[in-house]
Amino acid sequence: MIIDDTTLRDGEQTPGVAFTRKERLEIARRLDAIGVQEIEAGIPVMGTDESAMFASIMDLGLSARIIAWNRALVKDVQASVAAGANAIEISLPLSDIQIETKLGKTRKWVLKQIAEVLDYCAKYNLYISVGGEDASRAHPDFIEQYVQTIEAHGASRFRFCDTVGILDPFRTYNMTKRIREATKLDLEVHTHNDFGMATANALAAVQAGATHVNTTVIGLGERAGNAPLEEIIMAARHVYGNQDVFNTKHLRPLSEYVAQAAGRHVDPQRPVIGEYMFTHESGIHTDGVLKNPKNYEPFDPEELDMKRHLVFGNQSGLHVLEHMLAQEGIHLSQWQLTGLLHEAKKLARKNKAVLRNKDVSGLCEKMGLCVGA
Hints:
The protein is of the alpha/beta class. It is built from 14 helices and 10 strands.
């Protein structure tokens, strides 16, 4: 599975997100450090600043392939080439609703236009990915026609786009499998999260034969966003058992950096990278984790360079309380622990928050239980 991350293109199309030059360069460097194989770095035709920014990312000398995004217009390709691109994405709508109401054109025009632009690209030594915008709402026969056309005119791969996120994993699998059987081109999947299925759909496409997956860090993107980079990497590794080359210890720092640059925060319950992934409160869970973390954790937090936390809350029991105190060098008798348990639960309910080691030891001291303990 090859990841083509589009944080710097689709991710920046998130309402209100605008990365600075420094942030864009740093995001590119960090994506490369993780081992992301491709980075969709911008749209050079947008103007001088965007073109110069793309060129600066090219100049970083990263291991990842740097891709410029284009509409199916010769002038877009010219702008990308002028910015130094040697790999491009060309996008054109495939659904009738977008062809007719967005472009005011016909299916026949779409096939003719993409063929002409690809023929123009032949004069350059370009790696060319051709996208089918809104392909999930296009007629399957027309998708096949489009794929056969781009294959005949020199495309390197086809990007299957679920632009408005209306697919489920079963339909994604079936549609991808049909495309896979119709072409020898590499096949990329671009999913949106409008119904919360971007990750599941992307992985279903991989199971059906997709070779490339579009992602964004923390799922940034239009509307509800795209398939999150961190979810795709870790789910492919642990749900499907895929072998990969990714340095996942950099995932959370990258996510925090992108979140800050985007004016957001990493929710503690966010899948994979959220703090609560490895924070345990309930008595049954903390007891199980103390015996063996695998009882309640799908993977080791060390993979992400994160730490496990046992905290005390309204659902906690004596074992976690005893464990937390022991970490602070405090050991109480059974009756002292029982008394502390009662007061700690009251405090957790009152504050509507969990208690950490220092909170528990502080309460112990306040109750006079730690003296001589």
